[in-house]
Design a protein that fits this description.
alpha/beta; 8-stranded parallel beta sheet; 12 helices; single chain; 6-stranded antiparallel beta sheet; 29% helix
């Protein structure tokens, strides 16, 4: 009997280990291709309202959904009644939260959240359109919950003031305190958050101030809480620069992570992003994606944080360069502008079937070189054997020749097509070369010839 019980115990431990391992990797199945959607930050900062969220969802259904765009994400401070654009209201923020120290949507901005419904009615609206719903939160526990010693749901009497520290508090937004990961009640607090978000129907969560410095303890709590909540919630850590030393951990705990701080509509932001991205190519993989940040195109800063209401300040060449790099790098794509304000050119950057196909299907993404203001990035489509090649002139010099020899791909000739224009260049036997203006780029598909 003792031997039988020991065998049963051993089998139980093995099964538990297998189950735990499966649960810890299941989340990678939730984003096998890079997530694509809209985020309210670039256009509305911390002030977006329900009717604006719905308007962007309606536009996405009509114009973008068939190309793979599907997430609608409400960014920062949806729980503050009196926030304003152009700087956070730090003097007297009117927070909305429940009895367990969990933020709730501000009713003056999200009226459908009345009677304790939270974001569920808005999520239902978005889900009925065949889209997915996401929110932004800051890591940690609210200062207000700590000050009022609010109980943590499911923690047997432990209160918020027992799980926090003032150490490593976010420097640019002081709504929350750091959670001490090994404190009793810490896991239960994050569990209670994701229990609530699962009830609302949240499909995507962007969690801020996790990456610099890298908060491994809180990320572990978050991963466990998502895995336990019973809903497939894609996890985005933000902002960067995520340290490359944390690559193994973040890629085993998050679906996407920021490589840089916010990318805005200035050329230096783009060149800095391309520089930092060089170390992240080996970590591009199904389910876990290095993230280039939101796409600062179209109409941004309607009520935003950087500058006045405007269409993107990037030139058309610079916009092509940005969107080409995001796509060939296989970054998640989250458009930052107000979608209903799009002009025809901006929409065209989001709806090119061949470019979307590349972003969804390509593998083996590599940088061939980045030197002297010239960049070449390539990937392959395993379905048809074609090669994608993006060439960039990121210098300030016009008339720069950027070239790649076909022998670098192990081929002798290829039929070349410009993906953005659809123009066929014909059969090329030696090298793919182009002369580019400053800040310009091209994106080619090379169909191999036998």
């Amino acid at each position: 009997m003792k031997i039988r019980n020991q065998i049963a115990l051993t089998l139980g431990i093995v099964l538990l280990s297998i189950t735990s391992k499966a649960q810890s990797t299941d989340f990678k199945q939730w984003a096998q291709t890079p997530p694509m959607g809209w985020n309210s930050w670039d256009c509305y900062g911390p002030t977006v309202e329900e009717h604006e969220v719905k308007a962007n969802a309606d536009y996405m259904v009509k114009n973008l959904k068939k190309y793979g765009w599907e997430y609608i994400v409400v960014d920062i401070r949806w729980f503050v009644e009196n926030d304003k654009a152009g700087g956070y209201n730090q003097k007297d923020p009117r927070y909305v939260m429940d009895q367990y120290g969990r933020y709730l949507p501000a009713l003056n901005r999200f009226p459908s959240a009345k009677e304790g419904q939270g974001f569920k009615p808005l999520a239902d609206y978005i889900h009925k359109k065949g889209l997915k719903f996401g929110i932004h939160i800051m890591r940690g526990v609210p200062k207000k919950a700590v000050e009022e010693k609010l109980p943590i749901k499911g923690a047997n009497g432990i209160t918020a003031d027992q799980i926090y520290t003032t150490a490593l508090q976010c420097q640019w937004l002081k709504d929350n305190y750091t959670i001490v990961a090994d404190k009793p009640g810490a896991q239960e607090y994050y569990d209670s958050l994701f229990e609530l978000y699962a009830q609302w129907g949240v499909d995507f969560i962007k969690i801020d101030d996790l990456s610099r410095p890298y908060h491994e303890g809180e990320i572990n709590l978050i991963r466990k809480a998502i895995d336990k909540c019973g809903r497939k919630i894609v996890l985005s850590t933000s902002p960067g620069e995520t340290p490359i030393s944390a690559a193994a951990h973040v890629s085993s705990h998050a679906n996407m992570w920021r490589m840089v701080d916010d990318v805005w509509d200035t050329w230096p932001h783009i060149t800095h992003l391309m520089d930092v991205a060089q170390k992240w190519y080996p970590y591009i993989a199904p389910g876990t994606w290095p993230d280039c940040d939101m796409i600062p195109l179209g109409r941004i800063s309607v009520r935003g944080e950087r500058g006045e209401d405007r269409m993107s300040r990037l030139t058309k060449d610079e916009q092509y360069t940005l969107i080409t790099f995001f796509n060939i790098f296989k970054s998640p794509l989250f458009f930052g502008g107000d979608l209903p304000s799009n002009d025809a050119f901006t929409l065209s950057l989001l709806t090119n079937k061949e470019v979307v196909k590349m972003q969804r299907e390509s593998t083996d993404v590599k940088q061939l070189f980045q030197k002297d203001g010239k960049v070449a990035v390539t990937s392959r489509n395993p379905k048809d054997g074609s090669v994608y090649l993006a060439l960039f002139n990121i210098s300030d010099r016009d008339g720069e020749k950027v070239a790649v020899k076909l022998s670098d791909f192990g081929i002798k000739n290829a039929d070349v097509t410009n993906l953005w224009t659809g123009k066929k260049l014909g059969i090329i036997n030696d090298e793919v070369a182009v002369v580019l203006k400053a800040h310009a780029s091209v994106l080619y598909k090379l169909k191999l010839k036998k």
